[in-house]
Write a structure and sequence with these properties.
This protein is an all-alpha fold. It is 49% helix and 0% strand. The chain contains five helices and no strands. Helix 2 runs antiparallel to helix 5. The protein is rod-shaped.
Length: 148
């Protein structure tokens, strides 16, 4: 049997194969990359420190609660109908409460493109715009740290 190619003679191979005398030695070597490690389950969290993630989560929920509260106390905000008030069921579905507020702030942070209910009151809108700006900064910092 004959082997043609880049087969170098080593002590281990000499135990199993009888090599002829080499007639040419090139000195070339091949470098092979190590296998990449298995990706971690939470590798997507690595671009930002855990304290930043906690601060984002806390601030996000605070903005959601304050927005819902400002919408509730504002005369221009969504209101649930009072007892005996006309137009009950339609207006009751238009109520902007904490679930709507949480959905809107999470939608802004994660760039959710489906329509969501936004607040009507001026303070609620300003808080939503503030959170939209903060969300852009967070997403930009995350992307920059992920790329570096």
């Amino acid at each position: 049997e004959v082997a043609i190619g880049a087969v170098s003679i080593t002590k281990e191979r000499s135990k199993y194969v009888r090599f002829s005398t080499p007639y040419f030695y090139s000195g070339f070597a091949i470098m092979v990359a190590k296998q990449p490690p298995e990706p971690e389950r939470f590798a997507f969290l690595k671009p930002l420190d855990w304290r930043v993630w906690v601060a984002i989560f806390i601030f996000l929920n605070i903005i959601a609660v304050v927005t819902a509260y400002s919408e509730f106390i504002s005369p221009a905000g969504y209101k649930a109908p009072e007892k005996g008030e006309a137009g009950g069921p339609k207006e009751a579905t238009q109520q902007f409460a904490i679930p709507s507020s949480i959905h809107s702030v999470y939608a802004l942070l994660f760039l959710h493109t489906l329509p969501s209910k936004m607040p009507r009151s001026l303070p609620g809108r300003w808080l939503t715009y503030l959170w939209a700006g903060i969300s852009l900064l967070v997403v930009s910092c995350y992307t920059a740290n992920l790329a570096s």
